[in-house]
Write a structure and sequence with these properties.
This protein is mostly helical. Helices cover 29% and strands 0% of the residues. The longest helix is centred in the last third of the chain and has 14 residues. The radius of gyration is 15 Å and the shape is elongated.
Length: 78
């Protein structure tokens, strides 16, 4: 269940962690970079993902050529 709730209103078993802690962040990271956020670790997330997850997202985007080492979005990343 996407919302993490059962129909009876109770939390689904094992769904107590925020989605941002388990989701792939590459798409969100690319959107943030496109919006001008060069350093994801400094973005004021409501519930921040782990630094390792942010680093993994940036590493993937770099490998794909979607961002530059500075965090700027490349033509390919557009």
């Amino acid at each position: 269940m996407r919302g993490g709730r059962r129909r009876d209103g109770g939390a689904a078993e094992g769904d107590d962690a925020p989605e941002i802690r388990s989701a792939d962040l590459a798409e969100s990271a690319l959107s943030l970079h496109a919006a001008g956020v060069l350093e994801l670790a400094k973005f004021p997330f409501f519930e921040a993902p782990s630094s390792s997850a942010l680093e993994a997202a940036d590493r993937l985007l770099l490998q794909l050529g979607a961002i530059e080492p500075s965090g700027a979005v490349t033509d390919l990343g557009q």
